[in-house]
Amino acid sequence: MISNEKYIELARTYGTPLFVYDGDLMLERYNDLFRFIPHERLCIHYALKANYNPALLSLLRDAGAGIDAVSPGEVVLALALGFDPEKIIYTANNMTDAEFDRVMKTGVTVNIGSLSRLSKCAKSHPGAKICLRFNPDVCDGDNVMTMTGGDLTKFGILLQDADRAAEIAAGGNLHIIGLHEHTDSGLQHAESVLKSMDNLMAIATGERFPELEFLDFGGGFKVPYKDDETPIDYISMGKKIAEKFDNFCAVYGKQLLMRFEPGKFLSAECGTLIMEVNTIKHNRSRTIAGCNSGFPQLIRPVLYGAYHKIINLTNPDGKPALYDVCGNICETGDRFAEQRELPEIREYDLLAIKNAGAYCYSMGSVYNLRPMPAEAVIRNGEVADFRKALTDEELVTRILQK
Ligand SMILES: Cc1ncc(COP(=O)(O)O)c(C=O)c1O
Fold first, then answer.
1. Secondary structure (3-state) at 393
2. 176: which DSSP letter?
3. What is the CATH number of domain 271-400?
4. Higher-scoring residue by pLDDT: 186, 210
5. Pocket of ligand 1 contains residue 265 by CB under 6 Å
6. Do the first three CATH levels of 37-264 and 271-400 match, i.e. the same topology?
7. CA of 53 to the centre of ligand 1 (A)
8. CB 319 within 8 A of CB 257
9. I need a labelling partner for 257 at 20 to 30 A (CA). Which of 16, 25, 310, 339 fits?
């Protein structure tokens, strides 16, 4: 665990805004999953979209993780970092023919989520080994925009089309080696995972799909963002998952691999964004704490209304007051928190935004032409990897490049 004093020291050394990642915590979360789901054929494929910091990815690679990639760029990065193609699953949606061909050539497992793409694959890549993504028909998640199962989403083949999918695959002599579903991000109910597993297993019969090597149940494991959140009982959930999978394999008649693809669970808690307050402003009823970061660097509060805990690192014992914690971007909605009670914030205080390791840097942009912050990965209390921010001039040079 990184202490507040260490965050302050890092901010003083490297400047702000600064993303700090606790590599040890990420590995702890990776190991937690094996503790929760007691199954010898469990494989964890990290959802790279959550955070693509190369040093963090290397830690997971060395620990034995695979990758869930959702674009050719993510596949290229995972391969460049030495992930075994057999441990990469490519689950893009609405992919072009060119993207599909390109990724098929790399040897990673391509996960197809529409009958249309499946028909094209049967024609263009007869005899290929592929995975099929189904919509599990279960709705869960912490935000409507991250619910991926059920009627309203664009993802996966409908369960009712399983026979049609098997028929199309057979037409192209395709080998269906895996079936996949992903229900949500920010799981609210353990039962949803179990129900989605049941629904996928119900169509995964030996008659329909005789060549299965794995079932992939996606990501979605939540981590607490607020102190008073009801936690998921992962020990009890994991035990049920393992039992359910064993029962399935016994009926299927083969010991398949069980895959999960967590992103947030592995990386959210390990990340912290440190920023400095430069302006305190009293706008009649509101006090605004203006910081040197903004929503392009951590967009979840603006995009999803997500709550991120904020800590006043340099004045933790200040008298509590309500603040709008705002960024430096030309948008009224550029707020990390609205009317949040925090210890008195003064100009030049350092604030830490917690759970900034998932879907923060990776969703970032240089809107307003502010370069993304530097990133420091900490191992055993020391900086193990540092990636500097682009200077304004470097950013502009890239923009001017043709
Ligand atoms: C196919 C797929 N797998 C895994 C994940 C990871 O989800 P999470 O970060 O909530 O674990 C996502 C995220 O949206 C996804 O779309």
1. helix
2. E
3. 2.40.37.10
4. 210
5. yes
6. no
7. 17
8. no
9. 25
233-270 confidence digits (pLDDT tens): 999 999 999 999 999 999 999 999 999 999 999 999 99
- How is residue 361 written in tokens? 């840097």
Distance CA 364, CA 30 (A): 24
Q: How far is the CA of 375 from the centre of ligand 1 (A)?
A: 23
371 confidence band (pLDDT: 50, 70, 90): very high
C-alpha–C-alpha distance, residues 384 and 1, integer Å: 15
As to burial, measured by CB atoms within 10 angstroms (0-12 exposed, 13-18 middle, 19+ buried), residue 397 is exposed
Beta bridge partners of 275: 351
Using the CB atoms, write b or e for 202-226: b if 16+ within 10 Å. Answer: ebbeeebbeebebbbbbbbbbbebe
Bridge partners, residue 258, by sequence: 42, 215
DSSP string, 200-255: HHHH--TTT-TT--EEE--------SSTTPPPP-HHHHHHHHHHHHHHHHHHHTS-
Predicted model pTM: 0.96
Q: Ligand 1 in contact with 68 (CB < 6 A)? A: yes
**Beta-strand pair 350-353/310-312:** antiparallel
pLDDT digits (tens, 9 = 90+) for 50-78: 999 999 999 999 999 999 999 999 999 99
Which residue ranges make up each domain of the chain? 37-264, 271-400
Ligand 1 atom at minimum distance from 268 CA: 9
Residue 244 burial (CB < 10 Å; 0-12/13-18/19+)?
middle
Closest CA to 110 of 82, 88, 135: 88
Could you name the CATH architecture of 37-264? Alpha-Beta Barrel (3.20)
Maximal C-alpha separation, the chain: 70
Whether 357 lines ligand 1, by a CB cut-off of 6 Å, is no
231 pLDDT tier (thresholds 50, 70, 90): confident
How many CB atoms neighbour CB 82 within 10 A?
10
Q: Considering only CA atoms, which of 98, 196, 88, 89 is closest in space to residue 148? A: 196
Question: Which residues does the annotation mark as catalytic?
Answer: 330
